[in-house]
């Protein structure tokens, strides 16, 4: 279920998303009886699935990865790269794996879809996630859906649980950034057309730029220190959910409700 994407991919393109997933979701993968992750729509080459396996296993050594593609030719070309813990399957949003994945990563997949289709796709994918288990403290599986540039320097993604969207993360190579609103072109499909006056995401990026400008004196200590100061100032008005350890990576994560489109 779904349509074939352009398939554009490059080695190391999704490194920022992968590192965030390992840090934010590693505990769920470690506690899961079957820590299955799905790389949905991995593209014309299998590099992102191979890298996902490697990075997740640094946080949860038992993790398995299934690369899922709707194009049978792409699946056939990826099969020689299968190994212990890694398989490639033909499929789409139905996610043709047994059981309930603990992670679904869908990077640069929904970019080609209409905005009105996003909520339905999210619901379908969230319904396939491992459910929450209050007895163990598990919040359930995680869907990470977002967009990045061709070499992975700028990336924005939404993290969703079985209950729906939770957070939005902005991640960048700080040396490539002139101002935070440069990330607007990488907003995921649910938000990219809402970057207009009156919408929450537009107000957030406006405030982000203002805080960045106010933190200009910190640039003498480097882009990282300027970013950290900028995000620290943002926390006065926006529900930032992470802290300096992630900010140092060129990231900031904000609760979804604060950026959700009007009428969502």
From TrEMBL:
One of its GO terms (molecular function) is methyltransferase activity. It comes from the Bacteria. Keywords: Methyltransferase, Transferase. This is Methylase. It comes from Streptomyces griseorubens. One of its GO terms (biological process) is methylation.
């Amino acid at each position: 279920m779904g349509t074939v994407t352009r398939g554009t991919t490059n080695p190391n393109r999704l490194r920022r998303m992968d590192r965030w997933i390992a840090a934010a979701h590693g505990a769920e993968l470690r506690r899961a009886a079957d820590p299955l992750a799905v790389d949905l729509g991995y593209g014309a080459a299998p590099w992102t699935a191979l890298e996902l396996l490697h990075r997740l296993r640094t946080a949860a050594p038992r993790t398995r990865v299934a690369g899922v593609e709707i194009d049978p030719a792409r699946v056939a070309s990826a099969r020689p790269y299968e190994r212990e813990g890694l398989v490639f399957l033909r499929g789409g949003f139905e996610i043709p794996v047994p059981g309930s994945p603990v992670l679904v990563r869908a990077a640069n997949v929904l970019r080609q879809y209409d905005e009105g289709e996003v909520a339905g796709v999210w619901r379908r994918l969230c319904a396939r996630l491992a459910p929450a288990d209050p007895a163990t403290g598990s919040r359930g599986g995680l869907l990470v859906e977002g967009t990045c540039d061709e070499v992975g320097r700028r990336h924005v993604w939404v993290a969703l649980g079985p209950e729906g969207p939770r957070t939005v993360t902005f991640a960048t190579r700080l040396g490539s950034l002139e101002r935070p609103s440069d990330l607007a072109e990488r907003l995921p499909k649910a938000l990219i057309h809402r970057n207009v006056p009156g919408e929450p995401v537009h107000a957030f990026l406006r405030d982000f730029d203002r805080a960045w400008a106010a933190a200009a004196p910190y640039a003498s200590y480097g882009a990282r220190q300027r970013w950290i100061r900028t995000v620290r100032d943002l926390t006065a008005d926006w529900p930032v959910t992470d802290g300096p350890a992630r900010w140092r990576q060129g990231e900031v994560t904000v609760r979804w409700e604060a950026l959700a489109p009007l009428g969502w």
